[in-house]
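Response to reviewer comment R2.3. The reviewers asked that we include at least one raw input/output pair. We reproduce the pair for RGMB protein here without editing.
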Amino acid sequence: LPSVLCLGDCQLQPSCQIQKCTTDFVSLTSHLNSALEGFDLEFCKALRAYSACTYRNSKVCRGNLVYHSAVLGISDLMSQRNCSKDGPTSSTNPELTHDPCNYSGHAEAGKHQGGEKTTPTYLFCGLFGDPHLRTFKDRFQTCKVEGAWPLIDNNYLSVQVTNVPVVPGSSATATNKITIIFKSYQDCTDQKVYQAVTDDLPAAFVDGTTHGGDGNIKSLQIVEKVSGKYIEMHARYIGTTVYIRQLGHYLTLAIRMPQELVMAYEESQDLQLCVNGCPSSERIDDSGHLPLPVMGQLLPQRGAAHSRSVYTLETATTKCHEKMLVKDIYFYSCVFDLLTTGDANFTAAAHSALQDVEALHPRKEHWHIFPSSGGGGVGQGGKFCVGIGLACLILVVFL
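Raw output as returned:
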């Protein structure tokens, strides 16, 4: 009231800056990963900076409900994380903080224009099953690609997979070896090589270390989630996350990487399945058509190491529907894999691949892929296209 009624030369009262306090806190914590060591320390430092900012604005924000909500929220978070009120705080000007081994912060600071920051664009690629490939362009393909093939090969990272046949008489393959090379980068990490093969999914690089970077700054780190079955790699200096799983006898891979780094490669490195997809000669699907064996009936295998269940289109559909309720391309890939191999582990592989998409893909509206019926393959109406020579039989798959 006094500021409204003041007469003569009045000094303008400072405005409530709670929004800036909140924005700074988000900037300080957006790159943090709770799976990595040091998360609680950095998060508590950011909370104390947030608290100090609200304290500086306590008088001018006295009647602001957002301010009071923020104060209560900070108190709750500090209790949850066991943060002490006294201690070091993060910089309250995160856009001015330069950390050469933090891609997210460095990229945002580099793009700082007109007082606004532009967050980096991230891309996703995944490989699972027989094998099914989701490229950085969100194109979905089923390929054979037997032997060793490069998924990614740019100036920062190389990923190579080796695929082997899974069923005699079928061109379908699955991944039994993954090799990843994190290339040397400034002072953030020396070159690190990781290799996984069937029944050997280590939680360390080939040199025995579990991280890159000097001292407490772990710019590259391996986190074991399930012993021998699931590991994550976090390369903070290039803003990249990799998930590798073993399901049954085969491996799956999912990766998120900044677009500008994905595209940083030479013309001689253009054979990258994640970037350009599989060569046409290596495709099993034909514009979405999946050539299922003998009308969905798997014939007994000769010389198989152990007997497999025989699936029909109906029983494979039922099995996949237990794990995946949405009939997107992951569901139909599951059906294809069961009919091709008879191995129920491929159901878990398709389900986990979709979970990895939900965890890593930056755009929720693109998580599910529904190829159009007009282009052949699986449509949103729940139809399955089975390739038979030049014809294509459409079978309705009921819920």
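The CA atoms of residues 44 and 82 lie 8 Å apart. The first helix runs from residue 2 to 5. Further pairs are available on request from the corresponding author.
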